[in-house]
Amino acid sequence: MSKTDTWAAFGSEYLKAIEVENDTDEYVIVGVDSKDEEGKTTLILKLQREELNKIFGCNKTNLYAVQQECPINAKEAIGRIVTFNKVKVTNPSTKQIVDGLRLQFKPKEEPVEVDTPVEVDTEDAGLKDDSTM
Fold it and tell me: Where are the alpha helices (DSSP H) in the chain?
């Protein structure tokens, strides 16, 4: 297959607002890293959605969201599911209003606690009692 058979070869490895179709698209954080540039350290999230692998550089707002969900360290984010909301932001270098992304963590699924065990009537459920065989 030639690189011209799909647009994937020409895309950026960074997740862009134009690539997020809606705010229900779920991405799994499969890794975290950091990037040092111009005296600033940026948190990098490695994302996966179906066959798509992207990275997402966290600005201050998104970094704060990660810190709130993962208070010990950024590695706590690995395995978590996030969605992205599109917002209008000012590009600091061009001063133009552009689409930006705000990440939002999906709540962790906690096991449900049951106060009293639920009894199931096996005859009504169509199950046979194997203890009499």
Answer: 60-69
User: Could you tell me which residues are beta bridge partners of residue 100?
Assistant: 87
pLDDT in tens, the chain (133 residues): 556 665 556 667 999 999 999 999 999 999 999 999 889 999 999 999 988 899 999 999 999 999 999 999 999 999 999 999 999 999 888 999 999 999 999 988 765 565 655 555 555 545 555 555 5
* Matching residue, tokens 């065990």: 117
* φ/ψ bin of 66: left (φ > 0), alpha (ψ from -120 to 50), beta (otherwise): alpha
The amino acid present at 2, given as its one-letter code, is S
Residues forming a β-bridge with 56: 45
**What pTM was computed for the model?**
0.72
Q: Domains in the chain and their CATH numbers?
A: 8-109 (2.40.50)
